[in-house]
What we know:
alpha/beta, Rossmann fold, 7-stranded mixed beta sheet, 4 helices
Amino acid sequence: MTIIVVTGTRKGMNGFQRGTFEQYIKDHPFSYLHHGSCVGVDEQAHHITERVQPGVGIIIHPPTDNKHRAYFDKSPQTFVSQEQPYIQRNHKMIDSMAVTDVLLAFPDSSIEKLRSGTWATIRYAKKIGKNMMIIYPSGLIEHIDRR
């Protein structure tokens, strides 16, 4: 059972990032997608996964602050976890990852930002040694394999 965790900008994926995500989920079998239930990347990843891999379970980790929250129709493949503050929620998603799992990160720039939930999640995943792909808007893809 492989998990993909998604984090990214509220601005959403650009065309390159969307295409990379679609191709990745077609080429890499997985059982569950975890996301943080926000507008932008989380919302896009949810709908793309439902369309491209309809049998995959989707685990939603909503924030306690509903300002940027995205809401989804209930389906048999969708599970909603307890609301948590942003940082705790992001850490919970990363902490749920096993050795074979991967974080797919979609920042809105190639420059790391201190006050960014996406970059904070990337830094946390690096700190505790998780596998990830950072898919930059420019088309650059950074692979970090900790296996």
